[in-house]
Amino acid sequence: xxxxxxxxxxxxxxxxxxxxxxxxxxxxxxxxxxxxxxxxxxxxxxxxxxxxxxxxxxxxxxxxxxxxxxxxxxxxxxxxxxxxxxxxxxxxxxxxxxxxxxxxxxxxxxxxxxxxxxxxxxxxxxxxxxxxxxxxxxxxxx
Length: 142
What we know:
alpha+beta; 5 helices; 44% helix; 25% strand; disordered N terminus
């Protein structure tokens, strides 16, 4: 038992010595870091995000699918939609803000990133919406 305790202490000393021997970390802001855009996304993107959130809040599956492309309409089953409604509808009804972060080009579509901040004071969620030719091809809410 004593041998184990000594080995543990020795290992602890060796590890802490290694950590202390490291040079201090210098942190600087690299030139490639930028602030999120100080502007809103284009009107079709705003309409798509708000249309989808409104459809979730109202539990309106038909309206949710209306702004999607054919593949979106096929892939997003009623069960998947119902799960989104169960998770977020009650919180959406209490009010929310959409904070736009920016977009990522992923040919042939563009992914728009945003945060959903709820008025109920609970945790925020991260949202992604993918559009191609002003049609929704995907939505993901983290």
